[in-house]
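Reopening this one. Same input as before:
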Amino acid sequence: MQRGLVAEVHLAALRDNLRSLKAHIGQRPLIAVVKADAYGHGMTEVAWALKEEGVECLAVAFTSEAVALREAGLRGKVLVLFDDQDVPAILHYGLSPVLHSLKAARALSVQAQRRGTEVAVHVKVDTGMGRMGLDVQEAAEAVLQIASLPGLRLQGLLSHFSDVSPKDLGYAKTQLRSFLALRAALAERGLRPLCHISSSASVALLPEAHLDAVRVGLALYGAMPFQDEQPIALKPVMKVRSHVLALRRLKKGQHIGYGRTFTTQRDSLIAVLAFGYADGYLGSLSNTAQVRINGREAPVVGRVCMDLTMADVTDVPNLREGDEVVLLGPQGPHCWQLARAAGTSPYEILTSLGGRARRVYVA
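Same output, byte for byte:
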């Protein structure tokens, strides 16, 4: 019997989410973020499904991901968000890098001229994330210089929100004002690149930030970055499942797992499940999460082990060894439920579980 997890990726749900998002943003281009192996869903398969639905631009983190898309036969625009250093690959595969400095722009310009080609580039400005990009307060002259470099065509200008919450949009609006001020300053100088700052949360909560295009990642896969209201109807795309490896009957007062972190409070039926933290099921889910078996919730008990996890199935009827266990998705916990239980984000849940599971695709 094969160990570990199976991830069923439901491409119809992905398509439905895309349509819901498009209905929300109108006619603006949607840049689909498929980095980190499409958040654990499988980058190439997801990219093909999105392209079939008319998505014109895909975004990845690093050049190696973009190369994988090209080698899988995907054409069209591929935006490389964080890697402007691999100039040979950028030129060879016709990629669109996001530039974070004037130095990187000049290096790309030199190589593009040598090859007699022109590269479409986007420039990143830092409006308050404190991570990468030109300082927005000092960016205008640098952007103008980049736009004038031979071999480069300034296609886009972008930034990234640090905090978009239904409870407080103040900081996001401050970032947006800074970005819009830069946009206006460039327009006064005759420069009007495609401006995009909006991501999944701001698509729903901050329509004034939609601008010329939006970048969407997590929402495509069925979740919002915030837990509260869900203003856009989304469907979980991935179901992660495993099976019951063994059933154990324990008396009241018996310990379970490493460190004896759980002690039975009654005579109990304990299921040993065929997955552990080596399969991406986080150790922080110990004694906090639930799985779903035969339509019933069953709490995880004891520490999650490397290869095994235990659940209290005393209240689950008609249970047998080999029965399906759902960890995530349709017919199971939502990624936000697991994120709360683990004290983390839905991004980590999806990439951890989907990234290590054996994937099957459902049309």
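So the earlier flakiness isn't reproducible anymore. For the record, Residues 170-188 form the longest helix (19 residues).
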